[in-house]
Hints:
Largest sheet of chain A: none
Oligomer: heterodimer
Strand content of chain A: under 5%
Shape of chain A: rod-shaped
Order of helices and strands of chain B: HHHHHHHHHHHHHHHHHHH
Radius of gyration of chain B: 22 Å
CATH superfamily of chain B: Sodium/glucose cotransporter
Largest interface: A-B, 28 and 42 residues
Shape of chain B: globular
Order of helices and strands of chain A: H
Largest sheet of chain B: none
Amino acid sequence: MQRGEPEPSLRPQVGASLRREGDQMLYFACIVCPLVAMLSGITVAVAVVKFVVEVKRDIRSHNT
Amino acid sequence: MRVTFLDIAGVVLYFVATAIFAYFTRRTRSFAEFSVGNRRVPAMMIFASLAATIIGPGFSVGFTGQGYTSGYVFYFLALTYGVQTVLVGFLFAPRLTQFKDCHTIGDVMEHRYGKFTKLLTGIVSVGLCIGFTAVMGKIAGELLQLVTGWPLFVSIAIVTMFTAFYTFTGGVRAVIATDAMHFSWYTLVIPTMLLLAFFKAPHPEELRPMADKLTAAGFAGLNGMQILGIMVSFLLGETLIPPYTNRALAARTEAASRKGFVGAGIFCGFWLAIVASLGICAHQYLPANTASDYVFLDLGRRLLPTGVFGLLLASIIAIVMSSQESVLNSASVAFVRDIVGVNRTLTDRGSLLLGRFGTLVIAGISVFVSTYSPSIIKGLLICYSIWAPSVLLPFLVGLYHKRTVPMAGWLSIISGGISSVLWQTVLKEPAGIPAILVGLVFAILGYAIGHAAGRTRTQLAPASGSELA
């Protein structure tokens, strides 16, 4: 066994822990990230309506 | 690929919705409105527009293909892109917002290095934007060809000229509003597709080992120099390219500029994880020999029911148009200010007219260039290797230092740009050293020599007298 390598009895635990970390990353990428993106999209949709209303008001004020 | 009437209807409806949306923001009365939206754009719009421009076909269709072939490799490497955008938000974007009389990078360069450097910056800016527009136009054209069966050239021309038309009428304000609309649309559709792919996976227990295997194999296929080159390309290749600089110049306040850039950089990290994961999930649904550029669409076809697939097609068109319109607008503004206007004073009306028709002409040139453009990622990496070695160094230095030397500016652009292009095209990147790294070294050398040999010029007084940092 080389220096720094875990004892054989600990290896399955380390492996399981790494697997869990990997699984967490996959869940993060496939569940959390899409939800964050969708939330951003909805927030921007509200903001863009406000922006267009502001632009329209701006154009109208120029016309008058 | 089977495309039904309902799918086509979805695409057509999206074109109509974009046209209606652009109509509401169409009117521009001055060049300042056309180029920087009267510098009154709020933080949320800066964020949405910037994120929409960043997420082009490369960061969606291209990245899913990369996820399919090499797992999360490109995701890890491209995180430098998000880091770069956050850093720009903290360090450079607020400084740019202070340049109240500038419309382009060339204007800023003129303040620091004089007219010749401005002209060179304008030429590089317009050329780069034509390259980007062409790469994006080709992807959108291929998609339209898939849906309609029309010839590729005609399909590219239709998408590019449609985008050019509403950019022509409404300028940057229409661009920012439609960017945000596109952003809202595809941030709902594409993440939904990933959730479906993940939860409906026939063998979910294989997802994790597949991700590990692909990522490990992907890293094993790259040497240290290639990894460094790709990371530097993502870090610097698009740093403050003309459309991003225009967003900083259009921001209402320095805080709006900073928030917009930082938000877009953080969002980038989430988005890239989504599209790379789509590529990994695709292994559950597609045959192993699927070409990487077709993974995104093929997966959509397999996952989404008839009609809903049309919404995905509309999303891809939205992704392309949101990047293309920003690039087109900034190209036309750079053309007016940095090339035509470098030695003459144009009236506001003249600038506006020239900017509008410049948009159409640049779009037309891009359509022709697009027939020669290579694959998505390759095309983007070529564009990256030109921008960073030429304009970036003197531009960033100029944002922080007033006592600059004109010779340093133009010598850096010429030495960095030419060395990068020669290294890539003539010498074919010997020893695997990426052109962007070689170009950056020559840009630094050119700047140092110019700075040592040249003479400091008296700074040009800003027209408004309201800046400079």
